[in-house]
């Protein structure tokens, strides 16, 4: 029963992945299972055979047999004598040999040279140029291929034809990196070209990846089409096929115009910023707020509808021209005014302004009332103190007058008694 289950499992592996027989040179995809057939091996146990492996996982030849244990889940001998590698890796590249002896005593040897591969993702052109200038070196872009094995190669194409670096009009800078853990390769290829005056005005560039193993299909990037401009110099006539509109006009000083003038606007109002950068071809305009680029598509006009507190700040624009570096305009400030002008729509500024004014007047009125009460109380207390101070002297004077009146008749009586005596 156990032998039958093992045979059925082996047949299932064959149905799913297939067995490799006949070829001496084997290519296997990384991460997939691989089965190597041992020719001449008896179909049923007991079997007289042994596998010898010399790969990146072994320092020397390693021996595996049906009676031995699986080798750390890297490889094991199946019931029919074939060798199974559940998940092929880069370290499994090398030589595999099987020697089998039939029941009649005939010896058969099988030799395999195994190589592995990994198909990378589709290559792409990063940081592509938008336009090219005739007569000067231009960077077209960088072609990138990631996750391939073996490394393979990258090639550039112009209008469907392969570009060959010559160190003059065409130059390529290549870089190959290998991932320290997976062992897979990443390729970079940067293309520089010098378009000739009078050449194609709209060249198409593409890049392709060619695998390092034969019989593997090349992978291509999406093509990019660029426009070639010719700089106009005095005394030179137009080249063949060129038009006056295609000459380059130098970028002048970049001006930033704001409406309304001054950048002060009522809450809920609208501000329009216009970046004036006359040049040919038209430069790309990017916007900056408080020193940070705004995540907006390039454009010469920035509209701020329904301005709120979050829109306040300092704005500027940056113009990028093919033949010049980026040039930034002067900065303008956008601010909110507290009260609206005549004609503002109801609810935009007047409503919140009246509420704020009423609240402020209420607070001021309450503070004024409290101050008035405190003043009245203090005045009343001061008046009482002054009344008491005046009353004390008056009482003293009355007491002295009463005493005087009482003492005055006593003195005459005494006088009379003294004068009327014997």
From TrEMBL:
Instruction: Name its cellular compartments.
Output: Cell projection; Membrane
Q: Which PROSITE patterns match?
A: IG_LIKE (PS50835), IG_MHC (PS00290)
An example molecular function term from Gene Ontology annotations: RNA binding
Q: Where is this region: Disordered?
A: 383-422
- Where is composition skewed (Acidic residues) in this entry? 395-414
What Pfam families does the entry give? C2-set_2 (PF08205), ig (PF00047), Ig_3 (PF13927)
A GO BP entry: positive regulation of cell differentiation
Secretion signal, residue range per the UniProt entry: 1-22
Q: Where is the Ig-like domain?
A: 31-115, 123-220, 238-333
Keyword annotations of the record: Cell projection, Disulfide bond, Glycoprotein, Immunoglobulin domain, Membrane, Receptor, Repeat, Signal, Transmembrane, Transmembrane helix
Give me the segments passing through the membrane.
357-380
Regarding the membrane, this protein is recorded as: Single-pass type I membrane protein
Query: Which GO CC annotations does the UniProt entry carry?
Result: cell surface; early endosome; nucleus; phagocytic cup
Report the PANTHER family cross-referenced here: ADVANCED GLYCOSYLATION END PRODUCT-SPECIFIC RECEPTOR, CELL SURFACE GLYCOPROTEIN MUC18-RELATED
This chain belongs to which protein, by name?
Advanced glycosylation end product-specific receptor isoform X1
Biological source species: Odocoileus virginianus (White-tailed deer)
Q: Which gene encodes it?
A: AGER
